[in-house]
Write a structure and sequence with these properties.
Elements lengths: L3 E3 L5 H12 L6 E3 L2 E14 L2 E9 L3 H18 L7 H6 L5 E2 L1 H16 L9 H4 L14 H7 L9 E4 L5 E4 L12 H15 L5 E5 L2 E5 L8 E6 L8 E7 L3 E6 L4 E3 L5 E3 L14 E8 L2 H14 L1 H9 L5 E6 L4 E3 L13
Parallel strand pairs: 1-10
Antiparallel strand pairs: 2-3, 3-4, 4-8, 5-7, 6-7, 8-9, 9-12, 10-11, 12-15, 13-14, 15-16, 16-17
Helix pairs in contact: 2-7, 7-8, 8-9
Bound molecules: adenosine-5'-diphosphate and magnesium ion.
Length: 349
Amino acid sequence: MNNIFYKRKKHMSCLILAAILITSCIFPLTGCNNELTLTTPISITDYKLNTYVQISSYTNVKKDIISEAVSLCDYYEHIFSRTLATSELYKVNNKETTTLSDELYELIETGLEYSRISDGAFDITIGSVSRLWDFTSDSPVVPDASLISNALAYVDYTKVTLSTDEDGTHHIDMPDGFCIDLGAVAKGYIADKIKTFLVDNGVKSAIINLGGNVLCIGEKKKNTDFTIAVKKPFSDTGEYMELLNINDSSVVSSGTYERYFYSADGTFYHHILNPKTGYPYESVLCDVTIISHESTVGDCLSTTCFVLGADKGMELIESLDGIEAIFMKNDGTKLYSSGASSYIQNQNK
Ligand code: ADP
Ligand code: MG
């Protein structure tokens, strides 16, 4: 099985595996409509945005372009990070500023839109609760129940107001103690911006993978889609739950297997939190995978559909044009949106 791009790369081992698969097929350059399409991409892998990112271009461009594309992750992290003390969002959350850059305004506005669509099951003001949890710690602990219940008083997206002056300056108004968390939406947005940068610099064929948030530019080569492997939840052996044929589109997953821990008493805790309780959602789903043209939409919808649950989540997908989804339940069964089969490569549906 050649040239598979694993779309979840939380772990370095997966990333290395993908890199090996990519570089294992070494062929000469092939001509294609006067464009040279590489069979071995120019690729950079780095640790950014608290995850492994990889950008691989099949268009023969200078490596500096790819390197600049990777560094855009740092640029956007300094805007969107909830935890980085120098970020713009950090300053907004700490009331050091109420004006917003175009990018932060745009992403908060998008996050609010999905908060509304889900009637608050998805809520970007989850920050006061999510900052109590640390799913990446070596010894994670369940936060104190009283801290969680106090923090819930500061979760309500309807209390956030955005406005723009005549001169174009953006403002945000939200109550003291509120904390916006863009963790569910930022990677998709950043992937879309990286795509724009690469396209502007002549890249016609590439894969942008931000910790499993995948966005493909163009096709792999003429008349050949990229193959994106959606890994099976909780599998460390490289098993996939689906192989997808993707061209100029995004594949994004959300689920309970991405960041989780077991407490001393064996209770399972994952990182998608219920804004009503402050604890992880109890769901029949373990994975939601979205195929969309734009990665921002995919990232927003993957988390939104997860929090909405199987029925309402699929209903939402069916109401949207050009979006397909695959959900996996905890018992291993899969649910497909009506048009998903056209992307599926293997027959194990
Ligand atoms: P990942 O970032 O691992 O790809 P998601 O896109 O599903 O996964 O986003 C999960 C992140 O979203 C959490 O780590 C947290 O920052 C944020 N989050 C958690 N619960 C909610 C929620 N109910 N609404 C909005 N954002 C949430
Ligand atoms: Mg998301």
